[in-house]
Amino acid sequence: MFSLKNPFLFEKKRPPGLFTPDGGIFASAQAIRMKIRSFLARPFASYVHKQIRKGMMTAVEDQRRILRQLLVTGGQTEFGAEHRLAEVIDGATFRQAVPVRDYEQFKPWIARIKEGRHNVLWKGQPIYFAKTSGTTSGVKYIPITRDSIPNHINTARNALLCYMAETGNHAFASGRMIFLSGSPELERVGGIPTGRLSGIVNHHVPSYLRRNQLPSYETNCTEDWEEKLDRIIGETLGQDMTLISGIPPWIQMYFDRLTARTGRPVKDIFPNFSILVHGGVNFRPYRANLMQSIGRELDTLETFPASEGFFAFQDTRDPEAGLLLNTDSGIYFEFIPANEVFDPNPTRLALHEVSKGVNYALVVTTNAGLWAYSIGDTVRFLSTDPYRIEVTGRIKHFISAFGEHVIAEEVEYSLMRAAEECAASVVEFTVAPLILPGDGQSCHEWFVEFERPPADLNDFAARVDGYLREKNIYYDDLIRGNILRPLVIRPLCRNAFISYMKGLGKLGGQNKVPRLSNDRVLAEGLQPYLVHP
To answer: Is the pTM of this model over 0.85?
Structure first.
């Protein structure tokens, strides 16, 4: 039986008596069903693709409608009563009624939910808390409600269906798919199931995908990342892997372990591997190494999920086109010019007010009960017809120890340009200020783990410094004024970042290395891994 809501309903339970140790008749029957699922995905992909294209034309009105819907429900909550949401009629009055807050400022309401109270930020109680590691707030507990969970599930589905419609590649739906994610095991906080977002979403993988999904539930529950990775490799070797998804550094670690065990590139291990789905960090610094590990170019699909919501996804085959903003999925977006983000009364723009090429801090109001919530990410619009963005960094991941306000996008661009020119390959890196007494002694200190180091490190550093000066006029002024000396690059030994993250208990899953920091905590932690001349 077929329906547009779920074209994968053509599934039957395994007939008794058809299973044999080597797969036998059942293996053939299963292969046939997998091919049918791939075939039936085509009309569904076409349908969803057309609906998303229609939504591009109504994005601004969809945003206005969503805000009105959010206010109706929000007005009946404790938060709504305190902020008089029942009197809010549009975006302008919303901005007057509800100030922008980060997680630290939301904690009092989260605490009430943990105490068991209902109707605090949203109707009833959350069905989950997504547990994340905050940069300054320690562990964060982000509510996920019955109304917001479809945003996380359906957007991931829509990204894959758009890819199918755009490329014509439906065959991957017939193969095995791996999602490198956090443990699906949940604890209870205030009576509410709590865990990593990727683990929560794992409980909602549709049945038509779960049969193709790896690793197994038991392996996914393994807490130690290296043990988990070894078990994943054991389960995936010999399988027809067609889709691999995760955060780039942990995908790279998986590929490295596969090649170390087999002596072959990934393309020979998984000949039908055709799409790599990624998100969480800028992909550009990882792309060259990943493709080298695979042994050939293949399609990539970028997504922008977070515990607070699934905000955008790549809807075309061209990764340079940007990510389509998810304007009709229970989230109302606002944008603050990045240079005003720490002002007491920053400019807050609705979708129809944004401009291309400007760096904005992203603020969301959601049907999970987050109201004018600053998620900490910065984005830039590559297009406003339709609304497509690129993620440019984190609000708190910048260096401004000397007033330069260098952001992640600038350091990533500078490093990648120099690496390309010097035939170097970078695994991972981070940048910190080195403050020394005396004029012209302080500098930016870059800690870089190379896959393939440059032949001349001094020339390489000079190129990186030159590109950074081109990208950031404030940094250039500090060099010209002899306030800073040119940046210094400290090469690290192989697996330095893996060892460092392992020591923190943050190896794998959704954990990421910050590219920039204003303190020396990470820099000091990496000292044991320096490559000394």
So the answer is: no
